[in-house]
Each structure stands twice: as structure tokens, then as C-alpha cells.
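From the pipeline queue, job 12 of 40. The input is one protein chain; the requested action is below.

Action: predict structure.
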Amino acid sequence: MDTGRKPVSVIMNLWSDEQLKQYTGEVPSSRDMKVRTLSLQVREEAIRYGVESIELPGVLASILGPVPDETMEFLMKQGLRTLAQMSSEELRNLPGIGKEKAVRLTAAFELARRMVKLMPEDRPVINSPENAAALVMEEMRHLDREQFWVLLLNTKNHVLARETISIGSLNSSSIHPRELYKAAIRRSAAGVILVHNHPSGDPTPSQQDIEVTKRLIESGNIIGINVLDHLVIGDKKFVSFKARGLM
């Protein structure tokens, strides 16, 4: 008997029942799927490509899970500023939202507000090689293996983050520009300071250090991220490539 319903696989042919259950905790009926198509499609993009690579609908769907199309369309029309100001009570009255999803979304915006409250003064500022070296010296000079770190800076030279790129001998194969600049792009860094240690305690740059630095600078120029300096950390002493005229 034809009930007039289309099977889930027709309405959302990119999702199997197993995938739906894995990511949403349930397998919606065909009727439910008709009003949840948009949120599931954009959520799949978030799962497949990562939330940093998708537009706002995918980000919202990643937080909320499946919601009716009418609700997703309403949320998109509001814009981020209005959404951020909506209360949990206002959100929970929208079709398909409810208390739990409303709390998820308001909590996400609350995290964003708290991040904004982290004033630039709370972040270290790099005005010289000495500033940068002071941030890493005590931790790095005791390492018994060579490690390559990167300090990610904004346009005002505030430190956004420190990332470990490689552990082991520094060479052209262990330090790939892709890994370095992926971290910088993820943090929206305007510039980077390269840092690595010499477990021997002698910070004199090797020829390999110089060649790797040149390669990373060239890659940064292509994508528009400046390499501001490269520090080699020894035991209570360091060498700045910038100060030495090596870059």
C-alpha cells in the first residue's frame, strides 16, 4: 500500500540510518526528515569538512542538531548579533528547539562573549626577541629532545597561542609548511615566530636550521603570513635569526 511517504534514503540520500543514529542519536521518520533536510545537510558538511570550513548554517546545525527547516531559516534571517542576544526562553519557543538545544546555543554565544572579554593586555606582547625568548626559555632549555614550536601573533603582536609543530631532529622533512601554517590559519594569525631548542645548550644555528627557516619564510610569503623571527633556544641563552641578519 502506497502511503505517499518517501523513504529516508530518497529524502536524504547522503545519510544512512546508521549515520543518522550516530550523529543525531535517533533515526527520524520520513515525515520528520522532510522538515529537517536543511539542518542535516549543512551538519553533514560540518562533519565532513570541519566547522572552521563551513558557513553559519553548518555551525548552527553542529550545535543544535536536526531542526525544522522553518526554524533554521528563521535563525539565519536574524543574523549573528540578534541571535547572540536572544534568551534561552525565546529560543526554546521555536519549533524543534526545546530547552536543551536552546541552552546549547546560548552557551555557545556565552563562550564567545567570554573570549571577547579576554583583553589584549592579558596576552603577552612581543616587542623584541628578548620578549619572545622569555616566554619559552625556562620550559624549552630543559628539553632533552629537539622540539619546534611556533608563537602565533595578531596584527598588534599579541600572542594568540603557542603550537608544537614537531618533536625530533629539525630537518626539511620533519617541518612541513602545511602543518605550521595550518595552525596559523586556524588561529587567524597575522604573523609567527618560529622557536626550536638545541638540547646541547649551544644555540648557534646550523646550516639545516637556516635552510628550513628560508623554506618556511618563502611559504609564508605565498599565503600572506609573516615569519617575524626564528629563535634557537640553548641553556639560558638564545640566538635570534632576525638580530643576526639571517632572515
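Job complete. Strands lie at 147-153, 159-167, 191-197, 226-233, 238-240.
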